[in-house]
Structures are given as C-alpha cells and as structure tokens.
Amino acid sequence: MLFEFKLPDIGEGIVEGELVKWLVSEGDDVAEDQPLAEVMTDKATVTIPSPKRGKVVARNGKEGEIVKVHSTLVVIEVAGAGAVAKSNAGGNGAGNGARATASAPAPAMAARIASTPATATNDRPLATPATRRYAREKGVDISTIKGSGPDGRITREDIDAAGKSPTRAIQTTSVATTAPASAPKITLPDTRPSSPTSAAGDERIAIRGIRKRISEKMTQSRRTAAHYTYVDEIDVTELVRLRENARAIVESEGIKLTYLPFIIQACVMAFRKYPTLNAHVDDAKAEVVVKKAVHMGIGTATDAGLVVTVVRNADARKLKDLAVEIARLAESARRGQAKLEEMTGSTFTITSLGAAGGIFATPIINYPEVAIMGVHKIEKRAVVVNDQIVARDRMNLSLSFDHRIIDGHVGAAFTAEVKRILENPTLLFLHLV
After folding, report:
1. Over the stretch 49-86, which tens digit does the pLDDT of each residue have?
2. Which of 202, 283, 403, 409 is catalytic?
3. Are strands 66-68 and 16-22 parallel, antiparallel or unpaired?
4. CA 70 to CA 88: how far, in whole Å?
5. pLDDT, tens digit (0-9, with 9 covering 90-100), for 373-432
6. What CA–CA distance (Å, rounded) separates 188 from 169?
7. What is the rounded CA–CA span in Å between residue 314 and residue 324?
8. Quick one: CA torsion of 197, 200, 206, 211, rounded to 10 degrees?
9. DSSP assignment of 160-217, as one string?
10. How far apart are CA 144 and CA 134, in angstroms?
11. 280: annotated active-site residue
C-alpha cells in the first residue's frame, strides 16, 4: 500500500514552512518515527518524523522550497495491497482515519507527486497571508503580479516593485483618457532590484534556513515598528561584587552564573511600573496586548545564526533557576535540539555579546514585541565620585523601542528603573521597588 503523508500542523497559525533539509532519500527504508525532513517556519526549525514504517517512494519538494501545511511531503510504500492511503487532514497521527483511493503502481505515484508543485494562478496567486495583507495596504492587486519566489510565490519585493511600476501608476490614475494627443510621455525608471554581477573567484551562498528567517523577520520588524534607540551608562560595581560572591556558591553545584539572571530580574521588577514594555503589537486589530507573564527572550548565537530562546515565566523564577534555564536553552539551541515552545512566545528580548559586547548598538526589535535590550561589556572606567576620579565597573545598555507604542519618556523612565535596580542590586532580594 502506498501511504501519502501530508505535512502536519507544526504550530498555531503556521500555514507553510521552508524545506531546509531532507533526511531520507527515495528508495530508503524508514522506521516509524524516523526523521524524514527538517522544516523551518517563522518560529523555529522542526523535524518531521515518519508516521509509518516502509520504503520512501517519492519526496515532494526540493531543499530551500516552500511547502504548504497539509500538502504531500512523502509517499511511503507500506506492507499491503496497491491502494493509496492519505494521511488525515491535520497530518498528526497520520495512521488514524486514513482513507483509501484508487490503486496505482509505485512509479506512477512517485511521478505524480514529484510533478505537482504548488503554482500561482491569476485567480489564486501564491502568497502568504502576511504578504496579501501587505499588498492590500499598498493598494496592489496581486493577481496582476508574477511572483519571483519559489514556484511563483509572490514576495514583498514583488509588491514593492509593482507599486512603483509605470503600469500600475497608469492603472490607478486612468482618468487621463481625455488627455491631448500631444501630451508628453513620461517614462519612469525601473526601480526593481537587480542581481549583482559576479567576478571570478566570487562565492554565492544561498540565503536559506535560519539565515533566511532572520532576514525576513528583521526586514518585517524594520518595516513595521518605528524604531528609536535609547542608551544609558550604568555603574555596576556593586553588581560585579554581588555576582562574584554568588558565583562562588552556585558554581560548587555545577551552575554557571552570568549577569543575565540579574538583568532579567531587574527587567521583571521594572515591568511592574511600566507594564506596556512587556507586550505585543497586534497590527491586524490595532491593539497592544500587555502580557501578564514574562517570557524572556534571550538572543543566542549558534553556528546557523542568531536565534531567540525563551525563558518562560521568568517572573516566577529565582536567580539560580534562571541561570540553569538560560544555560540549558543555550546548549539546546547550539545543538539544534531546541523545541518549538522553547523558541517562540517571548514577550521581551535581551541580546548580549558578553565581554565582546562593544559600547552601544541599535538592536532591532523582535517583532511583535515593543522593545529589546542590548547588554554591553563591563569594563573599568575612570569616573568622578565625590569629586574624586576613581575606577568603577561600568557598562552600557542600548534599548530600542517601538515609538508607535512606547513614547520617549516612557522608554527613558523604564531604562532608568532598570539602572536604579542594577546599581543597587540588593533591591533584587528585598523587592523594594
């Protein structure tokens, strides 16, 4: 029997993903629950397991292509007659509720699956919901656009190009039928991006996988949120002393104690005064969703690129628990083993390069959040204290805010509150806010 396995639901609101890597080849024998492919969504990379034991007859899609949820991913030949079984609509528990259709030999089915990629048509162009909404905002009819993405998929760049094209300008101002015949013709320049030329020795690297998701998300954030950055300098001399004393205790238990747990707790306390900083923007409904729980995103560098791991319910965790969870999530991300729920749902993000953290930056907001904090290196600096020049441990914080939601004085006040707590770290234990 040929079993047609469809890409299952891989997250709330997710309708498609990028086929990052095939883990099996046509003709391979696979066991139940054996990984078939890696698929990346806007949220995370997930491994799709086989629902059946058998032989892979056909794979649908090439690495780097976009695959739709509920579209056929693979066809597996399992023991039985020559009928074709399809996984259920959701794809989860694919063996349950499978229905039989007309029989077909394996080669014919393989050819049918391999030769039916998703394509765009004039009446139903291929585009994601976000892209369709963007087209409506720009006043562009996507049925008139030829997509440049995989299988004719329409991208935001295609919409931008269509919005600037002379053809569309004429269509949207087509009352000029009474213009005199002698009216001069105006030719607008083609502003569509062109591919750069390559010279001998140049290397072209495909933008795919995590790097592609980073590119798309950062572009969306810069295009949507009205960024502004606020930088302040903090005296962390007392925090350095406190951390050194605490580290001597917790490291005997095998726990690595960085400054991040202290900074997370300072942010949690500051949210009590400025709750709109722990929030999401729902642009579709023109609403701000102020979050009750604090799910702290932590920028984590991996070999594949920067990802955000999420310390869930950070507001309910103690210092040592935060340290353990941060280390666990970072290790899972670097090994590529982080789960979907460990990389989604953050409400505020902290990004830090530790000792290599520079002086200041302009971090890009992890949309749909409304703010992000950049943490910079701690170093000895000469400062004036009581009219004396002394050496103190200092660091900078760079925070970017969405000005549509967070006014300048609110962003500054939130930063000042975090600064007050970190400069007087006993407040972290006394909860004197």
Report:
1. 999 999 999 999 998 888 899 999 999 999 765 555 56
2. 403
3. antiparallel
4. 9
5. 999 999 999 999 999 999 999 999 999 999 999 999 999 999 999 999 999 999 998 764
6. 10
7. 12
8. -90
9. HHHHHSHHHHHHHTTTGGGS-TTPPP------S--PPP--TT-------HHHHHHHHH
10. 15
11. no
User: Which residues pair with residue 390 across a beta bridge?
Assistant: 383
Other CB atoms within a 10 A radius of the CB of residue 160 amount to 17
Using DSSP's 3-state secondary structure scheme, residue 149 falls into coil
Q: Hunting for tokens 């299952």 — which residue is that?
A: 8
Cα 241 versus chain centre, distance: 36
| Residue 15 near residue 69, CB atoms below 8 Å | yes
Is 42 an annotated catalytic residue?
Answer: no
**pLDDT, tens digit (0-9, with 9 covering 90-100), for 148-183:** 776 577 887 888 888 765 444 334 444 444 445 555
Residue 69 and residue 128: Cα distance in Å, rounded? 12
Token pair for 345: 């749902």
pLDDT band at 28 (very low <50, low <70, confident <90, very high): very high
Length of the chain in residues, anyone?
Answer: 433
